[in-house]
Amino acid sequence: MEALTFGINCAPCIAHFIRDKNADRFCQQYLQAAQAVKDYHYVDDFIYSGDDYVEVGNIATQGGFHIRNWSSNSKEVLRILKSDSLLPEADEITATEKVLGLYWVPNSDVFTFICKFARLKRNVLDSDKTPTKRELLQVLMSMYVPHVFISCFTIELKILLFVDASELAYAAVCYLRIRQGERTYFSFVAFKAKVAPLSPLSKPKMELQAAVIGAKLSNRIQHNPSLPINSSCYWSDSKTVLKWLRMDP
Prior knowledge:
Blueprint: H1 11-25, H2 31-39, E1 41-42, E2 45-46, H3 53-61, H4 75-80, E3 97-99, E4 102-105, E5 110-112, H5 133-141, H6 151-160, E6 169-180, E7 183-195, H7 203-222, H8 239-246
Antiparallel strand pairs: 1-2, 3-4, 4-5, 6-7
């Protein structure tokens, strides 16, 4: 095929294959752009973060691509991209942008969540009538939460539902500690929570399950190519789990 036909089952696979094939073909000529195409693209959306506006501007203009609808939290980056006729007001930072289902506020560089629950037949949040489990499920499934940013809230709904009925849950959270000179910063990265299984587990075993998802979550974060992490530290308040982890398997 000389053209990509969208709508067929293999279209996403073909699109990603050709995207990576082109990146590999021109990686010697445009190294930064090739890495950006392979590591920071999701279908036709490109999301990138850099140390300075010159670096970001160079990546955005490399490789001959004409990407539309740029947005940034940096006025300097937007001025570099202003030469694109499709971006007439590139020096203006917009109020809110939608990024892969999340709402991003460029001015403050934070993610927000807007829960409209438009598909619900009635307003279950303000109604005096107790919502049904079906309505609770609709509320839960209508919230798109990549990296489970708000799992600390949605886990309460999961505990109330059908096959997930339980009074307990277990969770793990990852923070990033950044040292710059004399200053140290802490930043929330990701959160993971699960409802306890229906078959009863002892509290130490639940704590061990929390340690497992914590290790998996940390491992996934450390595989980010643009985030070199020098060391990692794992915390658990369960002395039993800490002793289990030091025992012979």
